[in-house]
């Protein structure tokens, strides 16, 4: 997803007044793996004009209103019209994928490294939003352009994935087929900014590698992009290619990424081994990661004080392994 000029199919010549619609907002519960529904109000400041697009989605600015009418600036992401047969389940699959990525990120962020600085990886909280047809103002019911023209094929309702609006320079770190973007030659970065970008790039690549190891070779998180280390629009490839978004390229996507991946200093610091051959067999045959690998010992346990041993035990207890 980029912040480029909006696509032609989302920018009619005229601009229009803001529109407020009652809507249903769905929040994914990672513990129960169930979507929970709540009522909300969505304001669309510019229903005739999108703010950006990618190959699959178009973006619109929206506000998620609270009971007092105050709005939280958000981005609504809808499948473009060049994606055929979009149904409501497609939006829930996209939202679920991004929520699952945050679970992987939590485990990744818990790993402590003494040898180098490891930035945290965060994925934006995302929601699925539905605007029932009855809640769309009459003058927008049959719009062929703009926000209200993007309806699902099965329910004919307006649906989108919604997330907080990021401020800053949008950057892509890797793709869903293994391409990497170590540098952004179009961005005029200072030496400090360039160093920070490289650090996050290597962390993003190592995170993709980590996700493959964490899942025993059955799942890969990639297509990582965002503002600094706040990421959005990730893709998950699964070995069977089912669910978790339209960009799930299955084993082919995993193989393409593995083929192009080159381990960096972050991968090595995390103890991730180079990938080759039958990756699934390779990963499943590896010895389980030990707590001392994830939380390195500063000295032998026998030489630690009671306070140091307690602190180390607390760090280990926080791991989800």
UniProtKB/TrEMBL annotation:
Domain of life: Eukaryota
PROSITE patterns: ALPHA_KINASE
Domain (Alpha-type protein kinase): residue spans on this chain: 27-275
Transmembrane region(s): none
InterPro entries in UniProt: a-kinase_dom (IPR004166), Alpha-type_PK (IPR051852), Kinase-like_dom_sf (IPR011009)
One function term, GO molecular function aspect: ATP binding
Keyword entries, A-Z: ATP-binding, Kinase, Nucleotide-binding, Serine/threonine-protein kinase, Transferase
Gene Ontology terms describing biological process: myosin II filament disassembly; response to differentiation-inducing factor 1
Pfam families xrefs: Alpha_kinase
Name the UniProt record assigns to this protein: Myosin heavy chain kinase a-like protein
Organism annotation: Leptomonas pyrrhocoris (Firebug parasite)
């Amino acid at each position: 997803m980029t912040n480029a000029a909006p696509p032609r199919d989302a920018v009619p010549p005229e601009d229009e007044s803001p529109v407020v619609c009652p809507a249903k907002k769905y929040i994914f519960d990672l513990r129960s793996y169930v979507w929970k529904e709540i009522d909300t109000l969505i304001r669309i400041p510019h229903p005739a004009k999108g703010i950006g697009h990618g190959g699959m989605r178009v973006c619109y600015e929206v506000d998620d209103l609270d009971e007092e009418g105050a709005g939280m600036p958000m981005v609504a992401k809808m499948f473009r019209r060049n994606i055929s047969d979009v149904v409501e389940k497609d939006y829930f699959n996209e939202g679920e994928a991004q929520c699952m990525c945050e679970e992987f990120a939590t485990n990744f962020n818990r790993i402590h490294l003494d040898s180098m600085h490891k930035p945290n990886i965060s994925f934006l909280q995302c929601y699925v939003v539905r605007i029932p047809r009855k809640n769309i103002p009459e003058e927008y019911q049959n719009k062929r352009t703009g926000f209200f023209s993007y309806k699902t094929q099965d329910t004919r309702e307006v649906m989108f994935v919604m997330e907080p609006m990021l401020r800053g320079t949008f950057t892509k770190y890797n793709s869903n087929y293994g391409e990497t973007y170590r540098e952004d030659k179009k961005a005029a970065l200072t030496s400090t900014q360039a160093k920070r970008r490289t650090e996050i790039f290597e962390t993003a690549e190592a995170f993709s590698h980590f996700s493959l190891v964490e899942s025993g070779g059955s799942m890969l998180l990639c297509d990582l992009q965002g503002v600094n280390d706040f990421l959005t629009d990730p893709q998950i490839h699964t070995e069977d290619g089912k669910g978790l978004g339209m960009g799930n390229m299955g084993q082919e996507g995993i193989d393409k990424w593995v083929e192009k991946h080159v381990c960096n200093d972050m991968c090595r610091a995390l103890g991730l081994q180079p990938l080759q051959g039958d990756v699934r067999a390779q990963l499943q045959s590896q010895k389980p990661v030990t707590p001392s690998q994830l939380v390195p010992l500063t000295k032998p346990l026998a030489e630690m004080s009671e306070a140091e041993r307690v602190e180390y035990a607390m760090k280990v207890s926080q791991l989800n392994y």
